[in-house]
Design a protein that fits this description.
By secondary structure, this protein is mostly helical. It folds into 2 domains: 54 residues; 57 residues. Helix content is 65%, strand content 0%. Helix 1 packs antiparallel against helix 2. The radius of gyration is 19 Å and the shape is globular. It starts with 7 loop residues before the first helix and ends in a 5-residue tail after the last helix.
Length: 133
């Protein structure tokens, strides 16, 4: 007997993220600038299509539903979590990879980033109180 690789909570989490990624890829693919001719645009269109195929393949391998839209609650929570994680990357100490960091940047930037992350976490917490449907 085959056991599922993911429990119900894990399935919901992975399915929500993959669904949101598919939606974002569809949005990007629809940007008018991507319809331009030329090798760089064609390569980008190909990668976007390959990403869509990879997401579908992963969904299929894990037997995740492809067409069930996650409820608002899960979409808001996932969006908040993704952006909270991404915002941490723009703190002053992480910007060294992009060049010299002004010595006073952290005191101006980091508290504001922390405020945004806190608000994103609050958004996720409030969304978690919404009904599933």
């Amino acid at each position: 007997m085959d056991r599922p690789l993911l429990n119900a909570n894990q399935q919901r989490r992975v399915a929500t993220h993959l669904r949101m990624l598919r939606e974002d890829l569809a949005d990007v693919a629809g940007w008018p600038e991507l319809s331009r001719p030329g090798a760089p645009y064609e390569a980008l269109r190909t990668v976007i299509a390959n990403l869509g195929d990879a997401v579908a393949s992963l969904s299929g391998a894990l037997a995740l539903p492809l067409h069930d839209a996650p409820p608002l609650r899960r979409r808001v929570m996932a969006t908040a979590e993704v952006w909270a994680s991404s915002m941490e990357d723009v703190k002053a100490r992480h910007l060294k990879a992009y060049g010299h960091v002004h010595p006073e940047l952290a005191e101006s930037l980091d508290p504001r980033v922390d405020e945004i992350v806190t608000l994103l976490q609050e958004m996720a917490d409030l969304a978690d109180r919404l009904p599933d449907r």
